[in-house]
Amino acid sequence: MPFSNRIASLLTKTRKIILVSIVFGSTALSAQEGILDDIFGNKENREKPSKPTLESKNKESENPERSKLRENSDKKESPAEPKKDSSLETVDKQDASTLKEDSKNSVVVEKKESEHPRKHGSNHLLEAPSGLMGTHTHAPGTIMVEYRYMLMNMSGLYQGTNKIDPVLPLVFPHQTTTNGSIAGFSATSPSSGNSTYMMTPTQMNMEMHMATLMGAITENLTVMAMIPFVRNSMEMLNGGSYLKTYMSAQGVGDIQGRISYRTMHKENHSLIVSFGLSFPTGSIDQQDFMAPGLPRMKVPYGMQPGTGTYNPSPGLTYTGKWEKIFWGTQALANLRDGKNANGYKFGNRYEASLWIGLKVKDWISFLGRIQLDKWENLSGSDPSLPITMNPQNDPEKQGGRRTIAFAGTNIKLPLISDFETRINFEYGVPIQQHLNGPQLGLKSAFNLSAQALF
């Protein structure tokens, strides 16, 4: 075969081989791409738009507004925004409803607390010294039950501002209002003279237990009733033997009623006008043995449980508050109306108090108070109380004035059932006293009150 023919035959075979290789290569490549598409997805199909179908042609023929709505719905249903789990949606809805109910309940509770300040101790007007009454009012329908204990420890004999030895009145004559006999005989008519005493007081404890019931008629009007039980005991020095003797008297005192009306009430300020009236329910004829060998005799004026007269008692109280600090002032008068069955009446008594306190915690507060007292001598006399027996039997040696400094604590106890309980107490000592003596002076004073508000 010629060389040219061989070359032509070789080129023909080479072309056939190339064509066969191209066919088999394209077939293998398409098969490989099909397998990869099955595994990973056809990328060209995702990137290249699909050929128009009958449905797409129908969409193109639709109203443009309808197509826009369809596109918006397609966007909402797009898998790019993962759907929330139905269980999570349920939990979220339950949490939202629970929070909503809790907020409603808290609003209701706060509203109830504001409507009923007696609960949970929200009424700051309750923050007042334990030794004072009529310092606050309550919400309508509220009832407060209170127990009070008051103790005055009297010690030392004073004449004016000077403390004197109790032996002096037994040895040296003192001016007396009346020179009367002793041992149960009646005193003579009042006159002026000098005399020694058969005995002088050295110490006396004056105790009072009081039950109080307080009810609110309206938000501004409150009434209360008080029943006291009095117990007085005195230690004396006998002028003959210079030995100590003792006497005591006890019984129900003068029952008192009081009305309090709140004339001003702002967020942090309150003004209350009150009026009380005591009734002569206490005894004025208590007797005891003065000394060995002597018969039973009436105890002195100041030891009797009662006064024997109707005693009006007007008062005015102001209270204020700023954040955790509270303060107040009170003026009170105890007036006497006429003489009692034994021919005398106690002198009028006037009291004024000023206090300030700090609420340290929601359940405890501390306060200090200054009290000014002034009381007058008796008018008239009991003929069965001999003047020369004891200076406390002298109507002209009963008056005086005194300034006392108190320090106290108010404690709110945990709620018992649906009512609030409090315990308040204070302790005081005199910082100045001027007495129409010889007369026992004050050594200390203690006041305690336990309140239940429901």
TrEMBL record:
Q: Which domain of life is it from?
A: Bacteria
Its signal peptide is 1-31
- What are the boundaries of the region Disordered? 39-133
Protein name as catalogued = MetA-pathway of phenol degradation
Enumerate composition-biased segments (Basic and acidic residues): 40-116
Keyword 4Fe-4S in the entry? The reply is no
Keyword field: Signal
Pfam families cross-referenced by the UniProt entry: Phenol_MetA_deg (PF13557)
